[in-house]
Amino acid sequence: VGGRIPKEFIPAVDKGFKEAIQKGTLIGFPIVNIEMDLDDGAYHDVDSSEMAFRICAIQAFRQGYEKANPTALEPLMKLEVSAPEEFHGSVMGQVNQRRGMISGTSTEEGFVTIEAEVPLSEMFGYSTDLRSATQGKGEFTMEFSRYAAVPRSIQEELVKKYQEQLAAESKK
């Protein structure tokens, strides 16, 4: 801190920053993996207030955020699918169709096990599809693995939907 902002206004700056990251301007979701450093600032005896510093922090964040080329993240799930060997191809095809990245396969006693990472958004309806593809003989487990950047085309689609949502809300 450069020393020109009185210490009693520092929490207001922090509050403004935390408020700004709760709903990002890209697609409206909280922003993660971000830090703020307050190096310096100006203070005026009459015009300075907690509200002014909170709003200033929000505006400073928005300006910097737009310049930072933000990226939307999506949760990736660790997926393990087991099915009779005869359904190996169809199960692999389903995982690939869901933007899955296959990390390994193994075969044991007539069953194939496929391990992959798949975006959570692609997993809705998977249990029904797997049952259909394996005549009810396939099963799967999944657990959270990590967050990863969404493909650029999907991010553009998410941004467009969010902007349409904001436009619709502003007309109400």
Based on CA atoms alone, the radius of gyration comes out at 24 Å
- Shape field: elongated
Structural class assignment: alpha+beta
CATH class of the largest domain: Alpha Beta
Beta-strand proportion? 15-25%
- What is the H/E string? HHEHEEHEH
Strand order in the sheet with the most strands = 2-3-1-4
Largest sheet: 4 strands, antiparallel
Counting DSSP H or I runs of 4 or more residues, the number of helices is 5
Q: What CATH architecture of the largest domain would you give?
A: 2-Layer Sandwich
Unreliable parts: none
CATH fold type of the largest domain: Alpha-Beta Plaits
Instruction: Give the domain tally.
Output: 2
Mean pLDDT: 91
* Fraction in helix: 40-55%
Number of strands: 4
Quaternary state of the chains: single chain
End-to-end span in angstroms?
A: 42 Å
Q: Any overview of this molecule?
A:
- There is one protein chain.
- This protein is of the alpha+beta class and 172 residues long.
- It folds into 2 domains: 7-67, Ribosomal Protein S5, domain 2 (2-Layer Sandwich); 73-149, Alpha-Beta Plaits, CATH 3.30.70.
- The chain is 40% helix and 23% strand.
- It contains 5 helices and 4 strands.
- A 4-stranded antiparallel sheet has the order 2-3-1-4, covered by helices on one side.
- A hairpin with a 2-residue loop joins strand 2 (101-108) and strand 3 (111-119).
- It starts with 9 loop residues before the first helix and ends with a helix.
